[in-house]
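SAMPLE LOG
Freezer: B-3
Tube label: C17
Construct: single chain, 263 aa
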Amino acid sequence: MLSVPTSLLLALVSASCDAFSTISINHRRHDSNTALSAQSIAEKVLANPQWPEAWPYSDQDFARQDESADSEFYDQPRLCYHIDDAAVTALTEYYSTCFKDGEDVLDLCSSWVSHYPKDWKGGENVVGLGMNEYELSQNPVLTSYEVKDLNEDPTLPFEDNTFDKVTCVVSIDYLNKPLKVCQEIARVLRPGGECILSMSNRCFPTKAFQIWLQTSDLEHIFIAGSFFHYAGGFDPPSSLDISPNPGRSDPLYIVKAAKKQES
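STRUCTURE (predicted):
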């Protein structure tokens, strides 16, 4: 059973549209009209959310089937994609619309590839933080990397206002202290800098937190957006559906938020 109050899920329904229940049931059909409608709803999930006043989650919501040390689980390198080729291409194309040359970027839960545009020229600090040193060492876009388990210690080992962008590719569902991680993201971002979470429906189920496994793609968007909201320090989050071939390839959603400008 979920411990999240009914108000959270009702807020998701309200933020979407009256047809949410129909679309959420049918969103996996291959009919193109249904796919387009589902895409439209995914982009409205965070348009007008009615957030509960206080953090609505319990520790149990972030429990996992496998609570053994993540350092053991990620000990062996996995030099593979965790979304299909079409979704990878869609993510890289999206990054090409918002990355600027010279920006300093932190890639959280990073590995041997970050899916950044090939012609993008990063700044002095393009940093990967992940669990497997060999994977990180093979990532050609990184200027440096840190091996760290954020589930043991969610503190980011960087100074305040260090990065223009923070990315996290299909991995937010593995972080069992997401509120603290998002607070840390806000700290290390420069004012106006943006955090970009990309999400699909693939995961290692034994390592994903419980509430993720018990909710739908659209609810994932709402949950990820709520992390930014409750962390503070961010402008209101927004969502995009960049799924390349709805119903025929991996879905791909963006939840993003910019750090508030200093007044």
